[in-house]
Specification:
Layout: H1 2-21, E1 27-29, H2 32-40, E2 47-50, E3 64-65, H3 74-80, E4 84-87, H4 93-101, E5 106-108, H5 114-127, H6 131-152, E6 158-163, E7 165-166, E8 169-172, H7 177-184, E9 187-189, E10 198-200, H8 203-209, E11 213-216, H9 222-232, H10 237-240, E12 244-246, H11 251-254, H12 260-272
Parallel strand pairs: 1-2, 1-4, 2-3, 4-5, 6-9, 6-11, 11-12
Antiparallel strand pairs: 7-8, 8-10
Length: 274
């Protein structure tokens, strides 16, 4: 009888353990930038899910993918059962509302400026229980950006056009984090006159603004660079002087995360040729 009772107690204990393991645990990041922040904060051990677009750093490939950023697999999210889901920005607003209605703890962490990158790093570090790491990381990034600023101190600012999409043709406006990056890299964003995040622009707009440097961050490829050279000829300073650049490895530039100083440095090197 005692042996029988012991077996029953072991079974009950095992069942209780299974039930406790079903409580929400870990984080899902639906933003490549947030994924990078979690890794830099040494909180990746609790990162249970990411998107197909989360491609940095190397360790991210070991994490489960929930698929697309805007239309992820709800079934996979339910299976991973996270305590917190991180989203980033307007394209995910409906998704965030849906996940919240389903009972998930959703934290929005969009960065539309360098300051907001700092704010989100500190916010995420509080959530993950690593506030000291957050402070350290923000201080490190600020120091790196200040160092770039010193190198650019005696250099004239250049008018810069940045293409982030070729179809439709778009560039970053005043409210985009990329506007901050351009300024910190010693440039003047020719699209900053528009009080929005992104601007629909075209060939006439580029000719009118006459940028000294053109950076192609879109997926159009090197063919886009050659087309711009042909189309603009001597009408645009950047084309006439050969200062049109297709940036192949652009993630540190376009992603508002902890590599922002690396992106600023890369852009500054292109704009000022140093």
């Amino acid at each position: 009888m005692q042996k029988y009772l012991a077996i029953i107690l072991i079974f009950i204990s095992a069942c209780s353990s299974d039930i406790s393991s079903d409580s929400p645990e870990g984080y899902i990041s639906l933003s490549p930038a947030v994924t990078e922040i979690l890794f830099r904060l040494n909180a990746d051990d609790k990162l249970v899910g990411v998107t197909d677009y989360c491609d940095y750093p190397d360790g991210v490939s070991e994490k489960e993918s929930v698929g697309d950023m805007v239309n992820p697999s709800i079934e996979m999210i339910a299976y991973l059962n996270p305590e917190t889901i991180f989203t980033a920005g307007e394209p995910q607003e409906k998704l965030a509302a849906r996940l919240t209605d389903m009972g998930y703890n959703v934290v929005e962490a969009e960065s539309r400026s360098i300051q907001e990158i700092y704010d989100n790093i500190l916010k995420i570090s509080e959530i993950t229980g690593n506030p000291d790491e957050g402070e350290r990381l923000v201080s490190e990034i600020k120091k790196e950006i200040a160092g770039i600023g010193k190198k650019l101190k005696n250099r004239d600012k250049k008018k810069v056009y940045v293409e982030i999409s070729a179809s439709p043709v778009m560039s970053p406006g005043k409210n985009s984090f990329l506007n901050d990056v351009i300024k910190k890299a010693g440039g003047v964003n020719v699209s900053a006159g528009f009080d929005r995040s992104y601007v629909l622009s075209g060939e006439e707009f580029i000719v009118e603004k006459n940028p000294e440097v053109i950076l192609i961050l879109s997926e159009a490829g090197r063919g886009r660079k050659e087309r711009m050279k042909r189309v603009f000829g001597r009408e645009v300073d950047a084309a006439e002087k050969g200062d049109i650049y297709y940036v192949e490895e652009k993630e540190s530039i376009v992603r508002p995360g902890p590599r922002v100083s690396e992106g600023i440095r890369k852009m500054a090197e292109i704009i000022h040729s140093f």
